[in-house]
Design brief:
The chain has 237 residues and is α/β, with parallel strands linked by helices. It has ten helices and six strands. It is globular, with a radius of gyration of 17 Å.
């Protein structure tokens, strides 16, 4: 039985993917660049700088930093207040606590956005630890964010599961030594999440909880994990 449950936030606990993608489009346009929604969605949940390395392979580091700074400002100004939590988050967290679990959040977001998410989720009393973009330099799929959450929980990865909405959440968890489970609320398909290594996938958190319980006994750590077919090959950061 898992003791630790590590959750991504954006796209998993709060409905923020459309707003994030639109703010990135707006920021790119400000710098004379463009990308369509479907292309941007391929990289939803991926570390922001790595996303721009893929979108703008000729851009210098300073330009990428300027674009990401602009995106953050646009997101906070124009989109953040429209972000709401998905239904049932508190119920799921309470159920996990009642079965003896400990909960951590592991999210690339930080600052005003993270504070807003915590304020609308209203689950502070159910969370043991948080690891956010203020704690580590690199976002997912880099495993250090999940590793930080594990350290704060005081649990080994073998007793924990990383729950997210993207293949990058799954990879970060697996690389940190956890198992991975996924929800479809971020727009990635069940096939993509399964190929990324998720042993349980469901439409949303409420539906995922029984899938996790059913799958715990079936996990075989020796089964090799495939990368999703859309996984981007990144240049070294």
């Amino acid at each position: 039985m898992f003791s630790g449950f590590i959750f991504d936030v954006e796209g998993t606990l709060v409905d923020s993917v459309p707003q994030n993608l639109k703010s990135l489009q707006d920021a790119l346009e400000r710098f004379g660049c463009s990308a369509d929604h479907d292309t941007l969605h391929l990289y939803s949940g991926l570390d922001g700088d790595q996303t721009l390395q893929l979108l703008l392979p000729d851009a210098e580091e300073k330009e990428r930093k300027d674009i990401l700074k602009a995106q953050g400002e646009i997101y906070e100004r124009d989109y953040l207040q429209s972000v709401k939590p998905f239904d049932g988050v508190r119920d799921v967290f309470r159920a996990l606590i009642e079965r003896g679990g400990r909960i951590a959040l592991a999210t690339d977001c930080k600052g005003a956005a993270f504070k807003h998410y915590l304020s609308v989720l209203k689950v502070d009393d159910l969370i043991t630890a948080t690891a956010c973009g203020d704690d580590v330099e690199h976002g997912k799929p880099d495993p250090r964010l999940v590793g930080m959450a594990l350290w704060k929980l005081g649990l080994p990865g073998s007793q924990s599961v990383m729950i997210g909405d993207t293949p990058y959440d799954a990879e970060a968890g697996l690389e940190a030594g956890t198992k991975a489970a996924g929800v479809l609320t971020g727009g990635f398909s069940a096939q993509v999440l399964s190929e990324a290594g998720c042993f349980a996938v469901a439409e949303d958190l409420k539906a995922l909880l029984p899938r996790i319980e059913e799958g715990e006994a079936k996990i075989d750590a020796k089964v090799p994990v495939k990368r999703p077919s859309i996984y981007p090959r990144l240049r070294s950061a």
